[in-house]
Amino acid sequence: MQPDTLPMISAMSAAVRLRFDDVGVDFPTAAGAMRVVEGVNLDVRQGEFVSIIGPSGCGKTTLLNMVGGFVKPTRGVVLLDDAPIQGPGPDRGVIFQEYGVFPWLTVRGNIEFGLKLGANARHAERRAEIVERYLALMGLADFADHHPKHLSGGMRQRLALARAYAVQPEFLLMDEPFGALDAQTRTAMQDLLLQVLATEGKTVLLVTHSVDEAIYLSSRIVVVTARPAHVRTIIDVPFAYPRSESVHEDHRFAALRAEIRTLVMEEYEAQVRQYAPRAAVG
Amino acid sequence: MVDRTFDPLKPQARNPATRVALVAAPWLAIVALWYAVRSSGLVNPSLVPAPHAVLAKLVELAGDRLPLDVWMSTRRVFVGVFLGVLVAVPVGFAIGWYPRVRSFVDPLVNFFRALPPIALIPLVIVYFGIGEAAKVVILFYASFFAGVIVMVEGIGQISPIYVRVARTLGATDAEIFAKVIVPLAVPHILTAVRVALGVAWATLVASELIAAQQGLGALIQNASSFFQLDIVYVGIICIGLIALAMDLLLRAATRRLVDWQDRIG
Protein backbone atom coordinates (compact mmCIF):
# COMPACT_ATOMS: atom_id res chain seq x y z
CA MET A 1 0.00 0.00 0.00
CA GLN A 2 1.23 3.48 -0.84
CA PRO A 3 1.83 5.89 1.97
CA ASP A 4 -0.70 8.71 2.31
CA THR A 5 0.38 11.60 0.15
CA LEU A 6 0.16 15.23 1.12
CA PRO A 7 -1.95 17.28 1.51
CA MET A 8 -4.28 14.53 2.74
CA ILE A 9 -2.05 13.79 5.66
CA SER A 10 -2.42 10.97 8.12
CA ALA A 11 -5.28 11.61 10.51
CA MET A 12 -3.45 10.91 13.71
CA SER A 13 -0.57 13.33 13.29
CA ALA A 14 -2.42 16.49 12.24
CA ALA A 15 -3.88 19.15 14.49
CA VAL A 16 -7.52 19.01 15.53
CA ARG A 17 -9.35 21.78 13.65
CA LEU A 18 -12.95 21.02 14.53
CA ARG A 19 -14.29 19.64 17.77
CA PHE A 20 -17.85 18.72 18.69
CA ASP A 21 -17.88 18.67 22.48
CA ASP A 22 -20.98 16.90 23.86
CA VAL A 23 -23.18 18.79 21.41
CA GLY A 24 -26.97 18.72 21.57
CA VAL A 25 -29.52 20.59 19.47
CA ASP A 26 -33.24 21.05 20.13
CA PHE A 27 -35.63 22.43 17.54
CA PRO A 28 -38.79 24.10 18.77
CA THR A 29 -41.96 22.46 17.42
CA ALA A 30 -45.66 22.86 18.15
CA ALA A 31 -45.41 19.79 20.41
CA GLY A 32 -42.45 21.25 22.35
CA ALA A 33 -38.69 21.00 21.90
CA MET A 34 -37.56 18.17 19.62
CA ARG A 35 -34.13 16.69 20.26
CA VAL A 36 -32.41 16.56 16.90
CA VAL A 37 -28.83 16.03 18.01
CA GLU A 38 -27.68 14.60 21.35
CA GLY A 39 -24.28 14.03 22.94
CA VAL A 40 -22.16 14.29 19.82
CA ASN A 41 -18.40 14.12 20.34
CA LEU A 42 -16.21 14.27 17.28
CA ASP A 43 -12.78 15.58 16.36
CA VAL A 44 -11.84 16.47 12.80
CA ARG A 45 -8.17 16.95 12.04
CA GLN A 46 -6.45 19.11 9.47
CA GLY A 47 -6.65 17.55 6.00
CA GLU A 48 -9.20 14.87 6.87
CA PHE A 49 -12.13 14.00 4.65
CA VAL A 50 -14.92 13.01 7.01
CA SER A 51 -18.27 11.71 5.77
CA ILE A 52 -21.39 11.72 7.90
CA ILE A 53 -23.84 9.01 7.02
CA GLY A 54 -27.14 8.03 8.63
CA PRO A 55 -30.89 7.75 8.07
CA SER A 56 -32.81 10.59 6.42
CA GLY A 57 -34.03 13.30 8.71
CA CYS A 58 -31.80 12.17 11.58
CA GLY A 59 -29.95 15.45 12.02
CA LYS A 60 -26.87 14.99 9.79
CA THR A 61 -27.48 18.32 8.10
CA THR A 62 -27.83 19.97 11.51
CA LEU A 63 -24.31 18.78 12.38
CA LEU A 64 -23.02 20.36 9.18
CA ASN A 65 -25.04 23.54 9.72
CA MET A 66 -23.41 24.02 13.12
CA VAL A 67 -19.99 24.02 11.49
CA GLY A 68 -21.33 26.30 8.76
CA GLY A 69 -22.53 28.68 11.48
CA PHE A 70 -26.23 28.52 10.58
CA VAL A 71 -27.30 26.58 13.69
CA LYS A 72 -26.10 27.12 17.27
CA PRO A 73 -25.89 24.12 19.60
CA THR A 74 -28.45 24.07 22.40
CA ARG A 75 -26.00 22.17 24.63
CA GLY A 76 -22.25 21.72 24.38
CA VAL A 77 -20.05 23.60 21.95
CA VAL A 78 -18.62 23.28 18.45
CA LEU A 79 -15.05 24.54 18.38
CA LEU A 80 -13.15 25.73 15.34
CA ASP A 81 -9.47 25.97 16.22
CA ASP A 82 -10.49 25.98 19.91
CA ALA A 83 -12.95 28.89 19.52
CA PRO A 84 -16.75 28.47 19.47
CA ILE A 85 -18.26 29.01 16.01
CA GLN A 86 -20.12 32.32 15.89
CA GLY A 87 -21.56 32.35 12.39
CA PRO A 88 -20.85 31.67 8.73
CA GLY A 89 -17.49 32.75 7.32
CA PRO A 90 -15.38 32.52 4.19
CA ASP A 91 -12.98 30.12 5.92
CA ARG A 92 -15.72 27.47 5.62
CA GLY A 93 -16.97 26.95 2.07
CA VAL A 94 -20.42 25.37 1.88
CA ILE A 95 -21.77 23.37 -1.05
CA PHE A 96 -25.53 23.10 -0.84
CA GLN A 97 -27.51 20.31 -2.44
CA GLU A 98 -29.54 22.82 -4.46
CA TYR A 99 -26.28 24.54 -5.57
CA GLY A 100 -27.59 28.09 -5.09
CA VAL A 101 -25.69 29.44 -8.10
CA PHE A 102 -26.65 33.09 -8.58
CA PRO A 103 -28.89 33.18 -11.67
CA TRP A 104 -28.38 36.91 -12.30
CA LEU A 105 -24.60 36.57 -12.62
CA THR A 106 -22.62 34.91 -15.37
CA VAL A 107 -20.48 31.87 -14.63
CA ARG A 108 -17.50 34.22 -14.22
CA GLY A 109 -19.57 36.57 -12.06
CA ASN A 110 -20.53 33.70 -9.78
CA ILE A 111 -16.91 32.66 -9.23
CA GLU A 112 -15.88 36.31 -8.70
CA PHE A 113 -18.70 37.03 -6.27
CA GLY A 114 -16.88 36.00 -3.11
CA LEU A 115 -13.62 37.60 -4.21
CA LYS A 116 -15.30 41.00 -4.52
CA LEU A 117 -16.52 40.97 -0.93
CA GLY A 118 -14.75 42.95 1.76
CA ALA A 119 -14.10 39.79 3.76
CA ASN A 120 -11.88 38.41 0.98
CA ALA A 121 -10.04 41.62 0.11
CA ARG A 122 -6.71 39.86 0.71
CA HIS A 123 -7.28 37.87 -2.50
CA ALA A 124 -8.30 40.94 -4.53
CA GLU A 125 -4.98 41.28 -6.34
CA ARG A 126 -5.09 37.70 -7.56
CA ARG A 127 -8.79 37.83 -8.46
CA ALA A 128 -8.45 37.46 -12.24
CA GLU A 129 -5.90 34.69 -11.86
CA ILE A 130 -8.07 32.76 -9.36
CA VAL A 131 -11.17 33.08 -11.55
CA GLU A 132 -9.33 31.80 -14.64
CA ARG A 133 -7.84 28.97 -12.68
CA TYR A 134 -11.21 27.63 -11.50
CA LEU A 135 -12.91 28.25 -14.81
CA ALA A 136 -10.30 25.95 -16.34
CA LEU A 137 -10.17 23.44 -13.50
CA MET A 138 -13.94 22.94 -13.44
CA GLY A 139 -14.24 22.82 -17.21
CA LEU A 140 -16.31 26.00 -17.33
CA ALA A 141 -14.04 28.21 -19.44
CA ASP A 142 -16.22 27.92 -22.56
CA PHE A 143 -19.23 29.08 -20.56
CA ALA A 144 -17.58 31.91 -18.63
CA ASP A 145 -19.94 34.57 -19.98
CA HIS A 146 -23.13 32.49 -19.94
CA HIS A 147 -25.80 32.73 -17.31
CA PRO A 148 -26.53 29.62 -15.21
CA LYS A 149 -29.86 29.04 -16.95
CA HIS A 150 -27.84 27.61 -19.85
CA LEU A 151 -25.93 25.14 -17.66
CA SER A 152 -26.64 21.48 -16.97
CA GLY A 153 -26.96 20.13 -13.43
CA GLY A 154 -23.39 18.86 -13.40
CA MET A 155 -22.08 22.20 -14.60
CA ARG A 156 -24.03 24.09 -11.96
CA GLN A 157 -22.53 21.76 -9.38
CA ARG A 158 -19.05 22.48 -10.71
CA LEU A 159 -19.81 26.18 -10.65
CA ALA A 160 -20.94 25.97 -7.01
CA LEU A 161 -17.69 24.18 -6.20
CA ALA A 162 -15.61 26.74 -8.13
CA ARG A 163 -17.37 29.61 -6.34
CA ALA A 164 -16.74 28.03 -2.94
CA TYR A 165 -13.10 27.31 -3.79
CA ALA A 166 -12.42 30.79 -5.14
CA VAL A 167 -12.36 32.40 -1.69
CA GLN A 168 -9.75 29.80 -0.63
CA PRO A 169 -11.62 28.27 2.33
CA GLU A 170 -9.79 25.92 4.68
CA PHE A 171 -12.89 23.81 5.13
CA LEU A 172 -15.33 22.43 2.63
CA LEU A 173 -18.77 21.54 3.99
CA MET A 174 -20.92 19.59 1.59
CA ASP A 175 -24.53 18.60 2.14
CA GLU A 176 -25.55 15.85 -0.29
CA PRO A 177 -23.71 17.75 -3.02
CA PHE A 178 -24.15 15.12 -5.71
CA GLY A 179 -27.62 13.94 -4.72
CA ALA A 180 -29.43 15.53 -7.64
CA LEU A 181 -27.00 14.33 -10.32
CA ASP A 182 -27.31 11.31 -12.58
CA ALA A 183 -25.01 8.35 -11.89
CA GLN A 184 -22.36 9.16 -14.52
CA THR A 185 -22.16 12.85 -13.63
CA ARG A 186 -21.98 11.92 -9.98
CA THR A 187 -19.00 9.65 -10.55
CA ALA A 188 -17.29 12.33 -12.64
CA MET A 189 -17.90 14.92 -9.91
CA GLN A 190 -16.48 12.62 -7.23
CA ASP A 191 -13.32 12.14 -9.29
CA LEU A 192 -13.07 15.87 -9.95
CA LEU A 193 -13.43 16.56 -6.24
CA LEU A 194 -10.66 14.09 -5.38
CA GLN A 195 -8.49 15.59 -8.08
CA VAL A 196 -8.97 19.14 -6.82
CA LEU A 197 -8.44 18.08 -3.22
CA ALA A 198 -5.18 16.37 -4.21
CA THR A 199 -3.78 19.72 -5.38
CA GLU A 200 -5.28 21.95 -2.68
CA GLY A 201 -5.69 20.34 0.69
CA LYS A 202 -8.88 21.12 2.52
CA THR A 203 -10.53 19.68 5.56
CA VAL A 204 -13.80 18.26 4.28
CA LEU A 205 -17.09 17.36 5.94
CA LEU A 206 -19.53 15.56 3.66
CA VAL A 207 -23.11 14.60 4.45
CA THR A 208 -24.27 11.80 2.19
CA HIS A 209 -26.78 9.00 1.84
CA SER A 210 -24.50 6.98 -0.40
CA VAL A 211 -22.31 4.41 1.34
CA ASP A 212 -20.23 3.95 -1.83
CA GLU A 213 -19.63 7.68 -2.11
CA ALA A 214 -18.62 7.89 1.56
CA ILE A 215 -16.09 5.05 1.22
CA TYR A 216 -14.71 6.27 -2.10
CA LEU A 217 -14.11 9.83 -0.93
CA SER A 218 -13.47 9.79 2.81
CA SER A 219 -10.64 9.09 5.14
CA ARG A 220 -13.13 8.51 7.97
CA ILE A 221 -16.85 7.74 8.02
CA VAL A 222 -19.06 8.77 10.91
CA VAL A 223 -22.21 6.68 11.17
CA VAL A 224 -24.87 8.59 13.08
CA THR A 225 -27.91 7.12 14.78
CA ALA A 226 -31.63 7.69 14.35
CA ARG A 227 -32.88 10.95 15.85
CA PRO A 228 -31.62 12.38 18.11
CA ALA A 229 -28.39 11.96 16.17
CA HIS A 230 -25.30 10.85 18.02
CA VAL A 231 -22.19 9.10 16.81
CA ARG A 232 -22.85 5.38 16.46
CA THR A 233 -19.39 4.50 15.25
CA ILE A 234 -16.46 5.96 13.36
CA ILE A 235 -14.83 3.88 10.64
CA ASP A 236 -11.37 4.47 9.19
CA VAL A 237 -11.20 3.98 5.44
CA PRO A 238 -8.01 2.01 4.65
CA PHE A 239 -7.35 3.36 1.14
CA ALA A 240 -4.57 5.83 0.45
CA TYR A 241 -4.94 8.99 -1.61
CA PRO A 242 -4.82 9.60 -4.51
CA ARG A 243 -7.62 7.13 -5.17
CA SER A 244 -8.92 5.85 -8.42
CA GLU A 245 -12.03 4.02 -9.55
CA SER A 246 -10.25 0.69 -9.01
CA VAL A 247 -10.80 1.17 -5.27
CA HIS A 248 -14.37 0.02 -5.92
CA GLU A 249 -13.06 -3.44 -6.90
CA ASP A 250 -10.93 -3.87 -3.76
CA HIS A 251 -12.23 -6.69 -1.55
CA ARG A 252 -11.96 -4.39 1.47
CA PHE A 253 -14.32 -1.97 -0.25
CA ALA A 254 -17.05 -4.61 -0.43
CA ALA A 255 -16.53 -5.67 3.17
CA LEU A 256 -16.62 -2.06 4.35
CA ARG A 257 -19.75 -1.37 2.32
CA ALA A 258 -21.53 -4.39 3.83
CA GLU A 259 -20.54 -3.33 7.35
CA ILE A 260 -21.66 0.28 6.94
CA ARG A 261 -24.89 -0.64 5.14
CA THR A 262 -25.88 -2.92 8.02
CA LEU A 263 -25.28 -0.12 10.51
CA VAL A 264 -27.17 2.45 8.45
CA MET A 265 -30.11 0.09 7.89
CA GLU A 266 -30.36 -0.60 11.61
CA GLU A 267 -30.54 3.11 12.28
CA TYR A 268 -32.97 3.63 9.43
CA GLU A 269 -35.32 1.05 10.96
CA ALA A 270 -34.97 2.68 14.37
CA GLN A 271 -35.87 5.99 12.75
CA VAL A 272 -38.93 4.48 11.04
CA ARG A 273 -40.10 3.05 14.37
CA GLN A 274 -40.04 6.57 15.82
CA TYR A 275 -42.63 7.67 13.29
CA ALA A 276 -44.78 4.52 13.54
CA PRO A 277 -46.63 5.21 16.83
CA ARG A 278 -47.41 8.74 15.71
CA ALA A 279 -48.74 7.43 12.40
CA ALA A 280 -51.00 4.97 14.27
CA VAL A 281 -52.45 7.81 16.37
CA GLY A 282 -52.80 10.19 13.45
CA MET B 1 -25.27 22.80 -25.93
CA VAL B 2 -26.32 26.41 -25.77
CA ASP B 3 -28.49 26.77 -28.80
CA ARG B 4 -30.55 29.90 -28.75
CA THR B 5 -31.28 30.11 -32.44
CA PHE B 6 -34.20 27.72 -32.35
CA ASP B 7 -37.02 27.96 -29.88
CA PRO B 8 -40.38 26.71 -31.13
CA LEU B 9 -42.16 28.62 -28.38
CA LYS B 10 -40.89 32.01 -29.52
CA PRO B 11 -42.53 33.88 -32.37
CA GLN B 12 -39.04 34.83 -33.66
CA ALA B 13 -38.81 31.29 -34.94
CA ARG B 14 -41.34 32.13 -37.70
CA ASN B 15 -40.53 34.10 -40.78
CA PRO B 16 -41.19 37.88 -40.66
CA ALA B 17 -44.14 37.92 -43.09
CA THR B 18 -46.02 35.29 -41.12
CA ARG B 19 -45.29 37.19 -37.96
CA VAL B 20 -46.68 40.48 -39.28
CA ALA B 21 -49.77 38.69 -40.51
CA LEU B 22 -50.31 37.02 -37.14
CA VAL B 23 -49.93 40.30 -35.28
CA ALA B 24 -52.22 42.19 -37.68
CA ALA B 25 -54.94 39.54 -37.93
CA PRO B 26 -56.82 40.17 -34.67
CA TRP B 27 -56.80 43.96 -35.27
CA LEU B 28 -58.16 43.57 -38.78
CA ALA B 29 -60.78 41.19 -37.39
CA ILE B 30 -61.92 43.86 -34.91
CA VAL B 31 -62.22 46.49 -37.63
CA ALA B 32 -64.15 44.03 -39.83
CA LEU B 33 -66.47 43.18 -36.95
CA TRP B 34 -66.96 46.90 -36.32
CA TYR B 35 -68.08 47.46 -39.96
CA ALA B 36 -70.22 44.33 -39.80
CA VAL B 37 -72.06 45.50 -36.69
CA ARG B 38 -72.66 48.87 -38.34
CA SER B 39 -74.02 47.44 -41.57
CA SER B 40 -75.99 44.61 -39.95
CA GLY B 41 -78.90 46.90 -39.10
CA LEU B 42 -78.99 45.53 -35.55
CA VAL B 43 -77.72 48.83 -34.19
CA ASN B 44 -78.69 52.33 -35.21
CA PRO B 45 -75.70 53.46 -37.38
CA SER B 46 -75.75 56.89 -35.75
CA LEU B 47 -74.78 55.18 -32.47
CA VAL B 48 -71.78 53.45 -34.07
CA PRO B 49 -69.49 55.80 -35.98
CA ALA B 50 -67.67 54.07 -38.84
CA PRO B 51 -63.98 53.20 -38.34
CA HIS B 52 -62.94 55.49 -41.20
CA ALA B 53 -64.96 58.35 -39.67
CA VAL B 54 -63.21 57.78 -36.34
CA LEU B 55 -59.87 57.74 -38.13
CA ALA B 56 -60.74 61.01 -39.87
CA LYS B 57 -61.70 62.54 -36.51
CA LEU B 58 -58.45 61.32 -35.02
CA VAL B 59 -56.47 62.99 -37.80
CA GLU B 60 -58.50 66.16 -37.35
CA LEU B 61 -57.99 66.23 -33.59
CA ALA B 62 -54.29 65.42 -33.98
CA GLY B 63 -53.91 68.89 -35.44
CA ASP B 64 -56.01 70.39 -32.67
CA ARG B 65 -56.28 69.51 -29.00
CA LEU B 66 -55.25 65.83 -29.08
CA PRO B 67 -51.45 66.29 -28.57
CA LEU B 68 -52.10 68.33 -25.43
CA ASP B 69 -54.62 65.76 -24.16
CA VAL B 70 -52.15 62.93 -24.74
CA TRP B 71 -49.36 64.90 -23.07
CA MET B 72 -51.46 65.80 -20.01
CA SER B 73 -52.72 62.25 -19.54
CA THR B 74 -49.33 60.65 -20.08
CA ARG B 75 -47.73 63.08 -17.66
CA ARG B 76 -50.33 62.34 -14.98
CA VAL B 77 -49.89 58.62 -15.47
CA PHE B 78 -46.10 58.92 -15.33
CA VAL B 79 -46.10 61.05 -12.20
CA GLY B 80 -48.70 58.86 -10.50
CA VAL B 81 -46.95 55.61 -11.39
CA PHE B 82 -43.50 56.97 -10.60
CA LEU B 83 -44.52 58.15 -7.14
CA GLY B 84 -46.70 55.09 -6.53
CA VAL B 85 -43.96 52.58 -7.42
CA LEU B 86 -41.33 54.67 -5.64
CA VAL B 87 -43.21 54.17 -2.39
CA ALA B 88 -44.49 50.67 -3.23
CA VAL B 89 -40.99 49.21 -3.71
CA PRO B 90 -39.66 49.78 -0.19
CA VAL B 91 -43.04 49.13 1.44
CA GLY B 92 -43.61 45.98 -0.59
CA PHE B 93 -40.07 44.87 0.11
CA ALA B 94 -40.49 45.33 3.87
CA ILE B 95 -43.76 43.41 3.88
CA GLY B 96 -42.44 40.62 1.67
CA TRP B 97 -39.08 40.20 3.37
CA TYR B 98 -40.15 40.36 7.02
CA PRO B 99 -42.95 37.88 7.77
CA ARG B 100 -43.75 39.68 11.03
CA VAL B 101 -44.41 42.94 9.23
CA ARG B 102 -46.53 41.06 6.73
CA SER B 103 -48.82 39.54 9.33
CA PHE B 104 -50.11 42.88 10.55
CA VAL B 105 -49.78 45.02 7.42
CA ASP B 106 -51.41 42.53 5.04
CA PRO B 107 -55.02 43.12 6.17
CA LEU B 108 -54.45 46.87 5.90
CA VAL B 109 -53.13 46.57 2.35
CA ASN B 110 -55.99 44.29 1.35
CA PHE B 111 -58.55 46.70 2.82
CA PHE B 112 -57.25 49.67 0.87
CA ARG B 113 -56.58 47.90 -2.36
CA ALA B 114 -60.14 46.60 -2.41
CA LEU B 115 -61.41 50.18 -2.57
CA PRO B 116 -61.92 51.31 -6.17
CA PRO B 117 -60.08 54.60 -6.74
CA ILE B 118 -63.28 56.07 -8.20
CA ALA B 119 -64.99 55.68 -4.84
CA LEU B 120 -62.38 58.00 -3.37
CA ILE B 121 -63.02 60.85 -5.82
CA PRO B 122 -65.46 62.75 -3.60
CA LEU B 123 -62.97 62.69 -0.71
CA VAL B 124 -60.05 63.60 -2.95
CA ILE B 125 -61.98 66.65 -4.19
CA VAL B 126 -62.61 67.71 -0.59
CA TYR B 127 -58.99 67.32 0.48
CA PHE B 128 -57.02 68.08 -2.69
CA GLY B 129 -59.39 70.27 -4.68
CA ILE B 130 -59.83 69.83 -8.42
CA GLY B 131 -56.31 70.66 -9.63
CA GLU B 132 -53.46 68.48 -10.89
CA ALA B 133 -52.74 67.24 -7.37
CA ALA B 134 -56.13 65.54 -7.12
CA LYS B 135 -55.57 63.51 -10.31
CA VAL B 136 -52.06 62.51 -9.33
CA VAL B 137 -53.33 61.43 -5.91
CA ILE B 138 -55.88 59.08 -7.48
CA LEU B 139 -53.30 57.62 -9.87
CA PHE B 140 -50.76 57.35 -7.08
CA TYR B 141 -53.28 55.44 -4.99
CA ALA B 142 -54.05 53.04 -7.82
CA SER B 143 -50.36 52.49 -8.73
CA PHE B 144 -49.18 52.15 -5.17
CA PHE B 145 -51.47 49.30 -4.18
CA ALA B 146 -51.00 47.47 -7.46
CA GLY B 147 -47.22 47.80 -7.04
CA VAL B 148 -47.19 46.76 -3.40
CA ILE B 149 -49.03 43.51 -4.13
CA VAL B 150 -46.60 42.60 -6.91
CA MET B 151 -43.56 43.41 -4.76
CA VAL B 152 -44.83 41.45 -1.75
CA GLU B 153 -45.52 38.36 -3.84
CA GLY B 154 -42.25 38.66 -5.73
CA ILE B 155 -40.01 39.26 -2.74
CA GLY B 156 -41.75 36.46 -0.86
CA GLN B 157 -40.68 34.05 -3.61
CA ILE B 158 -36.96 34.85 -3.34
CA SER B 159 -35.19 31.70 -2.18
CA PRO B 160 -33.22 32.14 1.07
CA ILE B 161 -30.49 29.87 -0.38
CA TYR B 162 -28.84 32.83 -2.14
CA VAL B 163 -28.54 34.77 1.09
CA ARG B 164 -27.07 31.72 2.82
CA VAL B 165 -24.55 31.17 0.04
CA ALA B 166 -23.51 34.83 0.17
CA ARG B 167 -23.02 34.58 3.94
CA THR B 168 -20.81 31.51 3.63
CA LEU B 169 -18.66 33.47 1.18
CA GLY B 170 -18.24 36.18 3.80
CA ALA B 171 -20.84 38.78 2.76
CA THR B 172 -21.95 41.35 5.32
CA ASP B 173 -25.62 42.37 5.64
CA ALA B 174 -25.00 45.45 3.51
CA GLU B 175 -23.25 43.39 0.83
CA ILE B 176 -26.08 40.85 0.84
CA PHE B 177 -28.61 43.63 0.34
CA ALA B 178 -26.70 45.34 -2.48
CA LYS B 179 -25.37 42.27 -4.28
CA VAL B 180 -28.05 39.64 -3.73
CA ILE B 181 -31.38 41.14 -2.77
CA VAL B 182 -31.35 44.13 -5.11
CA PRO B 183 -30.58 42.08 -8.25
CA LEU B 184 -33.25 39.58 -7.27
CA ALA B 185 -35.75 42.41 -6.70
CA VAL B 186 -35.19 44.08 -10.09
CA PRO B 187 -37.50 41.78 -12.08
CA HIS B 188 -40.22 42.28 -9.50
CA ILE B 189 -39.80 46.06 -9.61
CA LEU B 190 -40.19 45.96 -13.39
CA THR B 191 -43.31 43.82 -13.06
CA ALA B 192 -44.65 46.24 -10.45
CA VAL B 193 -44.14 49.13 -12.89
CA ARG B 194 -45.94 47.23 -15.64
CA VAL B 195 -48.91 46.33 -13.47
CA ALA B 196 -49.06 49.84 -12.03
CA LEU B 197 -49.02 51.38 -15.53
CA GLY B 198 -51.92 49.16 -16.56
CA VAL B 199 -53.95 50.06 -13.50
CA ALA B 200 -53.08 53.75 -13.84
CA TRP B 201 -54.31 53.97 -17.44
CA ALA B 202 -57.48 52.21 -16.35
CA THR B 203 -57.96 54.77 -13.60
CA LEU B 204 -57.03 57.75 -15.75
CA VAL B 205 -60.51 58.51 -17.04
CA ALA B 206 -61.84 58.37 -13.50
CA SER B 207 -59.19 60.78 -12.27
CA GLU B 208 -59.87 63.17 -15.16
CA LEU B 209 -63.55 63.16 -14.35
CA ILE B 210 -62.53 65.60 -11.63
CA ALA B 211 -63.27 68.68 -13.68
CA ALA B 212 -60.25 68.27 -15.97
CA GLN B 213 -59.99 70.60 -18.97
CA GLN B 214 -57.27 68.60 -20.75
CA GLY B 215 -56.45 64.94 -20.92
CA LEU B 216 -57.87 61.94 -22.73
CA GLY B 217 -60.36 61.34 -19.93
CA ALA B 218 -61.53 64.94 -20.22
CA LEU B 219 -61.76 64.59 -24.00
CA ILE B 220 -64.00 61.56 -23.61
CA GLN B 221 -66.04 63.19 -20.85
CA ASN B 222 -66.65 66.42 -22.80
CA ALA B 223 -67.45 64.54 -26.02
CA SER B 224 -69.99 62.33 -24.29
CA SER B 225 -71.79 65.45 -22.96
CA PHE B 226 -72.30 66.54 -26.58
CA PHE B 227 -72.97 63.00 -27.82
CA GLN B 228 -69.87 63.15 -30.08
CA LEU B 229 -69.35 59.40 -30.15
CA ASP B 230 -66.58 59.56 -32.76
CA ILE B 231 -64.48 61.64 -30.35
CA VAL B 232 -65.23 59.21 -27.54
CA TYR B 233 -63.88 56.43 -29.75
CA VAL B 234 -60.77 58.48 -30.58
CA GLY B 235 -60.09 58.98 -26.87
CA ILE B 236 -60.55 55.31 -26.06
CA ILE B 237 -58.29 54.22 -28.92
CA CYS B 238 -55.58 56.69 -27.86
CA ILE B 239 -55.60 55.40 -24.28
CA GLY B 240 -55.33 51.84 -25.54
CA LEU B 241 -52.52 52.62 -27.97
CA ILE B 242 -50.43 54.55 -25.47
CA ALA B 243 -50.86 51.87 -22.82
CA LEU B 244 -49.87 49.22 -25.36
CA ALA B 245 -46.80 51.18 -26.46
CA MET B 246 -45.67 51.64 -22.87
CA ASP B 247 -46.13 47.97 -22.14
CA LEU B 248 -44.08 46.98 -25.17
CA LEU B 249 -41.31 49.39 -24.20
CA LEU B 250 -41.27 48.05 -20.67
CA ARG B 251 -41.16 44.46 -21.87
CA ALA B 252 -38.22 45.26 -24.10
CA ALA B 253 -36.48 46.90 -21.15
CA THR B 254 -37.26 43.87 -19.00
CA ARG B 255 -35.76 41.52 -21.57
CA ARG B 256 -32.57 43.55 -21.62
CA LEU B 257 -32.28 44.04 -17.85
CA VAL B 258 -33.20 40.57 -16.63
CA ASP B 259 -32.02 38.40 -19.48
CA TRP B 260 -30.78 35.94 -16.86
CA GLN B 261 -34.28 34.85 -15.90
CA ASP B 262 -35.66 31.62 -17.27
CA ARG B 263 -39.00 33.11 -18.17
CA ILE B 264 -39.86 36.68 -19.00
CA GLY B 265 -43.42 37.94 -18.70
SSE topology sketch:
The complex is a heterodimer of chains A (282) and B (265).
Chain A: E1 16-29, E2 32-45, E3 49-53, H1 60-68, E4 75-80, E5 83-84, E6 92-95, H2 107-113, H3 127-137, H4 153-166, E7 171-175, H5 183-199, E8 203-208, H6 211-217, E9 220-224, E10 231-236, H7 251-281
Parallel strand pairs in A: 3-8, 3-9, 6-7, 7-8
Antiparallel strand pairs in A: 1-2, 1-4, 4-5, 9-10
Chain B: H1 16-39, H2 51-62, H3 66-97, H4 99-114, H5 121-128, H6 132-156, H7 161-168, H8 173-208, H9 216-225, H10 229-257
Helix pairs in contact in B: 2-10, 3-4, 3-6, 3-8, 3-9, 5-6, 6-8, 7-8, 8-9, 8-10, 9-10
Order of helices and strands of chain B: HHHHHHHHHH
End-to-end gap of chain B: 25 Å
Number of helices of chain B: 10
- The geometry of chain B reads as globular
Helix content of chain B: over 70%
Radius of gyration of chain B: 23 Å
Q: How many runs of DSSP E, i.e. beta strands of chain A?
A: 10
Estimate what percentage of residues of chain A fall within beta strands: 15-25%
The largest interface is: A-B, 34 and 25 residues
For the sheet with most strands of chain B, the description reads: none
Low-confidence blocks of residues of chain B: none
Taking pLDDT < 50 over at least 5 consecutive residues as the criterion, the unreliable ranges of chain A are 1-9
How would you describe this structure to a colleague?
The complex is a heterodimer of chains A (282) and B (265). In chain A, strands 6-7-8-3-9-10 form a 6-stranded mixed β-sheet, sandwiched between helices. A 4-stranded antiparallel β-sheet of chain A has the order 2-1-4-5, covered by helices on one side. Chain A folds into 2 domains: 1-91 and 170-282, P-loop containing nucleotide triphosphate hydrolases (Rossmann fold); 101-168, no CATH class. Chain A is built from 7 helices and 10 strands. In chain A, a hairpin with a 2-residue loop joins strand 1 and strand 2. Helix content of chain A is 34%, strand content 24%. With 282 residues, chain A is of the alpha/beta class. Chain B has 265 residues and is mainly α. Chain B has one domain (49-257): MetI-like (MetI-like fold), CATH 1.10.3720.10. Helices cover 75% and strands 0% of the residues of chain B. Chain B is built from 10 helices and no strands. Chain B has helices at 16-39, 51-62, 66-97, 99-114, 121-128, 132-156, 161-168, 173-208, 216-225, 229-257. In chain B, helix 3 (66-97) runs antiparallel to helix 4 (99-114), helix 3 runs parallel beside helix 6 and helix 3 (66-97) crosses helix 9. The longest helix of chain B has 36 residues, at 173-208. The mean pLDDT of chain B is 87. The A-B interface holds A 68-70, 87-90, 92-94, 96, 98, 100, 102-105, 113-114, 116-120, 143, 146-150, 152, 163-164, 167 and B 1-2, 159, 161-162, 164-172, 175, 179-180, 183-184, 186, 258-262.
